[in-house]
Amino acid sequence: MSGPTTSPGIVVTSRDTLAIVRIAARKGRAADLKRTVRERYGIELPGGPRRVQSPHLAFIGIGMDTWLATTDQQMDEFEAALRNVVDESATVSDQIGAYHVLRLTGPRVRDVLAKLVSLDLHPKVFTVDCAASTSGLHIPLTLWRIEAPDAFELAVPRSYSHDFEHLLAENAAEFHFARVKEG
User: Fold this and answer.
1) What is the pLDDT of residues 24-73, one digit of tens each?
2) What's the topology of domain 10-14+98-180?
3) Top-level class of domain 19-94
């Protein structure tokens, strides 16, 4: 006879199939970039820390006229495709090697994140598609909320990812932490 099973309070999934690039509007070209993205992808680039998306592409505002763009499609060609679309209005740089993206889900995800970041993550404040560039226990990260119930994604610099995942596991242990493979 086995003991009672406890479902995890937080599940962490590495988003290894997610392509990610950084797009920064060139001086005086932000309006051109926004128009191009609107015409090509049907997306209105956010003017602040927000996430906007189409079915296969998302843009996350991370600074003045600067965004992270993510997709699960066309990983090998993503940077080149975006560079061709935005032409001379922005610089585009591949960030796959720079960031490790994690998806955090579960009924206790906010409890764990509250231990890590100094943000008000109440669902009425940090609503779906809100984003923030912040730090988690002195490690820089970009965090955004996605549509799935109790779900967030965060991008951690790869050079800190091992340390961050260790701190995350320590802070999530009391809530029955689980790590799963993507897919």
Assistant:
1) 999 999 999 999 999 999 999 999 999 999 988 999 999 999 999 999 87
2) Gyrase A; domain 2 (3.30.1360)
3) alpha beta
